User: Fold this.
Amino acid sequence: MRFMMMMKADRSYEEGVPPSPALVEEMGKFIEETMRAGVLLDTGGLAPTAMGTKIRAADGKLTVTDGPFTEAKEIIGGFAIVQTRTREEAVELGRRFMQLHTRVLGDAYTGECEIRQMFGPGDVRSPTPLIHQPPTFQETCHADLVRQERARAGVILSALPVLFLLADAVGKFIQPEPVVTASAALGFPPDTLFALGTLEAACALLFAIPRTAVLGAVLLTGYLGGATAVHVVHGSSFAFTIVFGVIVWLGMLLRDDRLLALFPLRHPRAV
Assistant:
């Protein structure tokens, strides 16, 4: 269900007095929160009636009148279009918005917000039920919370391979005896360790940076593929490299919704 929330204008609005910076800041936070939750579809403020024009039809004639419209008893100063499952949810949004004004401007504030349901294709009765119903306000808030928790888990999981690769790269730079011996057993002489450490560090840093994380994951996949081939040639276990690759891409999927959306088994309402 879609509703239009209309804020009634006061005398200061008609005089062109801008709202207080504190009110603008709080309104910006409210708008950002509701838009992120998928509830707020559109919003905007209207200029004073002095900048408006009225067109009236009567007796087969059209009359065009420029503002201001001093005879108007109620003037709309701004609007918001919201989408909720029930009327009660829309009223609760309006209540929160008015409480915001009272909290910032004090008890002396006097204002009015009118909420009206909007008609649309979904409001016309049809023998075929709608397949996709709009999510409720609680569902969108919960989905946003789940998305944040998933991204946080992805960052934590991705930190494990990053830390391991950086530590392993440092070992190849310093080249202590155990590292040199283990590398030689796999066919890597000491003069190649610095290059391998540089490659590991570069892949780890690219994977850690959000803007280049996908590139880092792809490079790590190639690096791990080479490591797996080396273990196969020398007859040693390559289970660690496989698990390592799974951790890399699992963390990547949790961090990036665009990659997660590529999986066809996800429900359309899933986030």
